[in-house]
Amino acid sequence: MLHRESGVFKTSYAADMALYPLPIARWTVAAVLVIFAVVLPLSLHEYYLSIINLVLIAIVGALGLNILVGYTGQISVGHAAFMSVGAYTAANLAVHLHLPFWVTLPAGGLMAALIGAIVGIPSLRIKGLYLAIATLASQLIIEWVINHTPAISGGAQASIEVPRPTVFGVELKSQGELYFFLLAFAVAAVVATLNIVRSRIGRAFVAIRDQDIAAEIIGINIFRYKLLSFAISSFYAGVCGVLYTYYFGIANYEAFQIVVSIDYLAMIIIGGLGSVLGTIFGAIFVTMLPIAIRILVETFGGYFWDTAALSAVAASMRLIIFGLLIIFFLVVEPEGLNRLWRNIRNYFRVWPFSY
Amino acid sequence: MWDEAEFAFALLVSGLAIGLMYSLIALGFVLIYKATDAINFAQGEFVMLAGFMATTALAAHMPIWAAIAVAVLGMILLSFVLERTVLRPLLGRPVVAVIMATIGLAAILRGLPPITIGAQTKALPLPIGDDPITVWTAVIPPVQVVGVIVSVGFLAVFTWFFLKSRMGIAMRAVADNQQVAMAMGINVERYFAIAWAMAGVVSALGGIIWGSMLGVDTQLSLIGLKVFPVVILGGLDSIVGAVVGGLIVGVVESIAAGYLDPYVGGGTKDFAPYVLMILTLMFKPYGLFGTHRIERV
User: Fold this and answer.
1) Do B208 and B24 touch, CB atoms closer than 8 A?
2) S-S: B10 plus which of A27, A62, B74, B138, CB 3.0-4.6 Å?
3) Per-residue exposure over B184-205, b if at least 16 CB sit within 10 Å of its own CB, e if not
4) Is residue A5 part of a domain?
């Protein structure tokens, strides 16, 4: 933010496509990493770390959805269903075969990717509204199948308790220990996404988003890339679902209902479609907002509603505020928080001279 | 053998009756799509809200006809406001934006009743008696008879409206190509508002009929999820499609529930329509009566 961009002349395409557009970006990234890896875990209380942990998990899932919706332009209302596929795959493997997390986690992701690719098959023929409805149907069908198949869902409550993950012989119990575990995955997801979107695959995705017929004419195999986009996105979702399962210690289909899909859509719309930084903003915002609403309603809600009904009021308030935010950002600022951030940065870039 | 036939007949008739009631809700969706190209993911919430309006009016000791009038007028007003504030700024934006906006709208509408008039289920009694009508082995509750009559009535009115009336033809022109319609002197914005108002009326009656059958609470909005199989099967922009799609979905649902439920432990009803819908999308994406669209670069 407080650096100058003059004197940077790129002389090759490789330099233009580099992960860090400016030399100073390396230092910024290093500083952010130090804050996240050292300062935060040492200074924050368990409770705040548990919230940050939720944000980290949400970042993984939201990045996956943004690859599909923001970069490839294929809308999906069934993201949470893919999370549940990953979650139940991992939970079953961990409980019945006693596999460690480094097997269950990729297995959950791959299973979700497979299901996601299957759901993506109709995307070759249908798009826009039709695809939204098809993914909505797959959300409902996957939810129903998991709920009605005891072999997957582990019985009447449709929930499976999962042992804590063990890393290098240490069982991760406290939020502080889980934090490092989750941070590693969030960072890996961010780096992987940045690399996907600047590579050949990412360019193909963007071409399909902007005009898929034109993309096909210039030689992009749309079917392959659309399926790839669905598979990558669902892989992220599956990993996100597995992380949720390890975080809560339980796989439960109620954590992956359609409301969750809409939460994730809200994250990428509020954050900014087709932007990695925006996805992170969105994940932070949407995860923190319900907590803020709950605190506000518990503090001031007593003046307007019965104290007994306050938790229901908080849930309804959350729905209303989410809806309002989605509409607000779509109508007023379609590029989301990422755009607001860029506006602020651009203002300070030439500060104190306005031109 | 005879038992089999009796069972199948009962399932078929109750499926047809429920199917026509789905059509009633799907009609609101189709009207908006046909006239304005906007997709309303909040149709179920519209229906729910109409039910809440009617029960609130009844709770204020209004007679039933006044409650119905309140719901209809309230929904027309609400449709006008939403069209102005939410949908109009999104004109010309990608279809994804409109879908997301109506999903957001659905969230708002679902959140409103619990914090204003309470979340408990309210009864919405219609003055039509409780004696079911029996046709051979099939038993149809009177609410569904009213639903069937209203759906068929709307089908007739809208078919006439879009084929014969000046307004309906103008509306079709707007849906076909907004710019050309403007050049022909059609006030496009006015027709958008009219289409939303018509959808509001349909949703209001749907809400009253479904509300009196199931009781009015936020769960009523789940009906909206059943709209999608209906409109996909029938074709998104076809009034006839909404009715035929509704009949097929109703029958499939009722037959699947009757024959499969004993084997899978219930709930087939909420599952079969979506399988049907996925199959439709794979093999006949524009539905039975929908218009094929040719896309150009």
Assistant:
1) no
2) B138
3) eebebeebbbbbbbbbbbbbbb
4) no
Structure tokens at B255: 């037959």
Residue A222 located in a structural domain: yes
Domain boundaries, chain B: 24-125+153-283
In terms of CA atoms, which chain A residue is nearest residue B218? A316
ipTM of the complex: 0.83
Helix or strand (DSSP H, E) at A150: helix A150-153
Chain B interface mutation, best of A293, A310, A319, highest count of B Cβ atoms under 10 Å: A319
pTM: 0.86
Q: Are B31 and B158 in contact (CB under 8 A)?
A: yes
Q: What is the DSSP secondary structure assignment for residue B121, as one 8-state letter?
A: -
The beta-strand segments (E) located in B16-166 are 133-135, 138-140
Dump pLDDT digits (tens) for B76-116.
Answer: 999 989 888 888 888 777 777 888 888 889 989 988 888 88
Task: Tell if the CB–CB gap between B270 and A140 is shorter than 8 Å.
Answer: yes
Q: Tokens 């307004």: give the residue.
A: B167
Q: What DSSP state is assigned to residue A251?
A: E
Asked if A23 reaches chain B (Cβ–Cβ under 8 Å), the answer is: no
Amino acid B141 reads P
Intra-chain end-to-end CA distance of chain A, in Å: 17
Q: What residues make up the domain containing A184?
A: 26-349
CATH of the domain at A97: 1.10.3470
Whether residue A173 is contained in a domain is answered as yes
Q: Which amino acid is at B154?
A: F
